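hey so u asked for the seq, here:
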Amino acid sequence: MSKKIKVGILGATGTVGQRFVSLLVNHPWFEISVLAASERSAGKNYEDALDGRWNMDIPLPKHIGALIVQNIKDIDCISQQVDFVFCAVNMPKEEIKIIEEEYAKHEIHVVSNNSAHRWTPDVPMILPEINANHAEVIKEQRKRLGVQRGFIAVKPNCSIQSYTPVLTAWKDYQPYEVIVTTYQAISGAGRNFETWPEMVGNIIPFIPGEEEKSEKEPLRIWGSMSNGKIVPAVEPQIACQCVRVPILYGHTAAVFLNFRKKPTREQLIEKLWEFKGEPQLLGLPSAPKQFIQYLDDNSRPQIALDVNYENGMGISVGRLCPDSIYDWKFIGLSHNTIRGAAGGSVLCAELLKAKGYITKRI
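ran it, structure tokens below
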């Protein structure tokens, strides 16, 4: 019997689901046991269910392509085959809330890429290098759900990855006011240029729901635990605009900010290189060794050169300059479907395993 922890991927045929598959094929701790999707795909083998839509940069492994896709709503059956699931389903938010809680009530760990439970007070929203301690709220969630083993944990929105870690690295200087514009890749909408030809040579200056997430989710990550729930921080205040740009992978952020304590440029850059969290200290399999890199070349970071830094799990920063209105400005870059989506969820699961929350049951 395999010693690896058995994993199911809910929403396996979508862009993020495919990314989960590509990241887990050779994972040292986890092995794919179940691929699940909508009723439309259920009963087909995975390769046929994809119908030529495999979009990853590695070939689809034959043994994965041969797996029969199961119906995500067949919770009784799936829960007998896995230790935990990653959730990347494309459904209305209320339906996602229900199905994730049903899996948890079947004593399954749920690590979700979806936004449905990001504001459920006893569900930790974890960016592993920043708020690993929020996992402690799981014991309160289990009381509410009436379970011994099951739980839900979520990762934050992809759009915040390119600046929230940077602001965290600078917390000693007390940033209190932040203006952000994110330039977001089309894969963040689960699309590519074949399915969204209107994006070729185009920019769309609005992404529904993204600005609120980009402004508020960092505050929950920086929040504290009180009376069995996560209470968001109140600073720094963040204002954001989110723009869709004709890039396949990579979210770029242009950030302006003010500090209460006035650091030098050298101090800020030093903090970026020094910053690490529990994933680095624990040596987790998916953790970037150097989480944040600073690039001195004013033409960096670039999508073409830097989006795959640390296998897509690192953050690239450049153009740190004094500003005429704010104290400083910089450019940040992160990979939206690796660090911002599936890779961030895998790292979250590794952290939860290392802390004893994810365990083998079958």
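The first strand starts at residue 5 and ends at 10. The chain has a mean pLDDT of 97.
lmk if thats what u needed
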